[in-house]
């Protein structure tokens, strides 16, 4: 009965075992996972847009090939994640519909514009760097399909982060104009990258329950701190500065102190009022509509194959 099922579920979570699609799970657990995995999947496919903008403007054939491979990886991550969400009993078309109608979110970061080539560097270094810090612990998420999808995704994210670092390193050690372009870009992406980790712990309604369920392993603020601690020394290697006068090593704790994040800006962006929210959704809905014939053709083909194999 339900009590026994709940006890078995609690024991699996307490024992750090994985919950699999056919296992009983509390309705709230299922809902939370659908919400988080869908938001994650949406972020991957919306995240293709800011970079896609620069494929045709990449400064060399080599840079273009790398950027194309990276953007394709993001499409792949989206597909893994939609598949993981579908194991919870929801259809991909329903999830896309919720994205297109604003009922499900995607990461705030992808609502900022990409104004220069250096932004490809900042996205790789800072945005993918933040994504790795957030996602590595999800490889140990209590829900098996999400945890397993995250293993490969994290490996690919590491490559993305390195390619971004390399772009910035190259620019930073180039001409004065290139150095200035890299610095200007990092100045714009730094604060939005810190916002990716979500609201502060005391304003994060989902954290406590998600941590109790083993979906989240660390709080938003813990991961944000980890990211800052990791990134400051990398900025020094790049020869770039981070736009925060309060950034300072606290000798006692060994952690970097940093300035106040503009949470009003964060709330505006997740409410749909960021610089590019409308443009991102419009482009996504357009791409979905343009792809209708492909879905129809694939369905017709699958039906034909099924009829043949029956006959
Ligand atoms: N952008 C948009 N929405 C956000 C963000 C953000 N950066 N941070 C938090 N939110 C939303 C939450 O989704 C939640 O809204 P909802 O209840 O309507 O879904 C609300 O703000 C409150 O936040 P929390 O209670 O802290 O939410 P949660 O426990 O889900 O934590 C977090 C947010 C850390 C983003 C978590 O969902 C997570 O780890 N997700 C997986 C990683 C991910 O989505 N990465 C995408 C960007 S990285 C990339 O794709 C390259």
UniProtKB/TrEMBL annotation:
InterPro entries: Aromatic_CoA_ox/epox, Ferritin-like, Ferritin-like_SF, PaaA, PaaA_PaaC. It comes from the Bacteria. This is 1,2-phenylacetyl-CoA epoxidase subunit PaaA. It comes from Angustibacter luteus. The gene is paaA.
């Amino acid at each position: 009965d339900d009590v026994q099922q709940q006890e078995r579920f609690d024991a699996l979570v307490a024992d750090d075992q994985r919950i699999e699609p056919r296992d009983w799970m509390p309705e709230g657990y299922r809902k939370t996972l659908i919400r988080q995995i869908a938001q994650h999947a949406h972020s991957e496919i919306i995240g293709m847009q800011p970079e896609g903008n620069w494929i045709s403007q990449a400064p060399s054939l080599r840079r273009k090939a790398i950027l194309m491979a990276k953007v394709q990886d993001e499409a792949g991550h989206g597909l893994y994640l939609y598949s993981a969400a579908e194991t919870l009993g929801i259809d991909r078309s329903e999830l896309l519909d919720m994205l297109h109608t604003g009922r499900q979110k995607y990461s705030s970061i992808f609502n900022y514009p990409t104004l220069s080539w250096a932004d490809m560097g900042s996205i790789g270094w800072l945005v993918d760097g933040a994504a790795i810090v957030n996602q590595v612990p999800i490889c140990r998420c209590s829900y098996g399909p999400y945890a397993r999808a995250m293993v490969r995704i994290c490996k690919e994210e590491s490559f993305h982060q390195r390619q971004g670092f390399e772009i910035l390193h190259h620019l930073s050690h180039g001409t004065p104009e290139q150095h200035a372009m890299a610095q200007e870009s990092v100045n714009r992406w730094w604060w939005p990258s810190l916002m990716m980790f979500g609201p502060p712990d005391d304003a994060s309604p989902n954290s406590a329950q998600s941590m109790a369920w083993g979906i989240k392993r660390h709080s938003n603020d813990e991961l944000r701190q980890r990211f800052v601690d990791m990134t400051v020394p990398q900025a020094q290697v790049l020869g770039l500065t981070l736009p925060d006068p309060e950034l300072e090593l606290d000798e006692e704790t060994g952690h970097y102190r940093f300035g106040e994040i503009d949470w009003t800006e964060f709330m505006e962006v997740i409410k749909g009022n960021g610089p590019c929210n409308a443009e991102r959704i419009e482009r996504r809905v357009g791409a979905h509509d343009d792809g209708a014939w492909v879905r129809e053709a694939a369905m017709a083909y699958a039906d034909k194959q099924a009829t043949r194999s029956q006959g």
